[in-house]
Amino acid sequence: MHDLGFTEPTPVQSAAIPPALAGRDVLGSAATGSGKSAAFGLPLVQMLMDMPRGTTRALILAPTRELAAQITAHLTAFAKHTNVKVAAVYGGVGFGQQAAAFKRGTDIIVATPGRLLDHLAQKTASLDNISFLVIDEADRMLDMGFLPTVRRILRVLPTKRQTLFFSATIPPEIAALSKDMLQNPQRVDLAPAKGPAVGITQTVYSVGQMQKNDLLTELLKDNDIFSAIVFTRTKARANRLAAHLLKQDIPADRIHGDRSQAQRTRALQDFKRGKFRVLVATDIAARGIDIAELGHVINFDVPMVPEDYVHRVGRTARASATGDAITFVAADEEKYFAQIEKTLGKRLDRSKTPALPPVTQNPVRYTDDVPGAQRQRSPRPPRNAPATASSSPRREFRSLPPSKSGRPR
Predict the structure, then answer these.
(1) 52-55 — which CB contacts under 8 Å span 24+ positions?
(2) Matching CATH number, 200-357, of 3.30.470.20, 3.40.50.1820, 3.40.50.300, 3.30.428.10
(3) Residue bearing the bigger pLDDT, 170 or 214
(4) pLDDT mean over 224-237
(5) Cβ atoms 99, 119 nearer than 8 A
(6) H or E segment at 245?
(7) pTM, two decimal places
(8) What CATH superfamily is the domain 2-189?
């Protein structure tokens, strides 16, 4: 493991690996970025090394494509000097290679629940010989509505198996699922009672919705922010923000559910390589991105669920490193941030917002996609006011000269 940079185990690895190697079920809760992939991945590789090849014996369920791809990359690295093979099964890409992975009996399959169910329905997957089951980020599966799908998958798995169950939090629904799945598990409880991992500096700015773009641009003038993931609430806002940053000559790309898997993978790889300084993301990426030395996470929009705040900012300060989390809080988001502060058990002081240019009034400009936000329109001109280019676009249109063809433009 030294060639992967492993020098000593993290707390969750120290607590989970010995019982896993001993064949016990494990119920683990630990903060995002604490090293859970190795906590279950290393025991799996170790135990599979001495088992016959040609049969899929380990199944790992993950809630998002990004997390499934990340786990696959980690386990492939762990198994580099062994004959254990790993394959990913998730949506957004073709069935062919995934079906072939099942057919040849790839040792470890890392899958999202929906795509795995598709393979089961089309009879391109067999789970008859599964000896090891891992559920990762179970609470995120609950948030995404995957628990019924997970239960359907459980019904076709062998009852005699070892199960490793990990979740950053253990709400009642997840506790009930774990009781159905686990037999006398070893409990590994290392999740902090409140808040993100130690090592994260949290900064908060009070700012109007219309000035968030300007504030972000101003902060990015600081060369100390050399790479940042910026979280928005919706896909449309992510698109607009990425376009704004590019207009400001700030290299940026975006990752969200409307982009193809190839586009999402390429954006993430380019960001890791440093081609882009900013990756604008929706919460689809909050638990599926592992970037070494990510210095900053910026909440462009306040998440409506406190747990999402913890997972967003958990993209930085991973594996005992340090990092910065910056949050923009508009007036209509104060109620959501108050819930976050309640969860953290403390109030976060607002930092002094840099001087920003005044908001320019466009004919129509909405604070869309923000629940409860008020639409903002520029005032109507007086009824008898003379027409201007902005108040009478038709007159401006008719004043254009004809095209070379003689047709109206």
Answers:
(1) 53/83, 53/105, 53/107, 54/104, 54/105, 55/105, 55/129
(2) 3.40.50.300
(3) 214
(4) 90
(5) yes
(6) helix 235-247
(7) 0.64
(8) P-loop containing nucleotide triphosphate hydrolases (3.40.50.300)
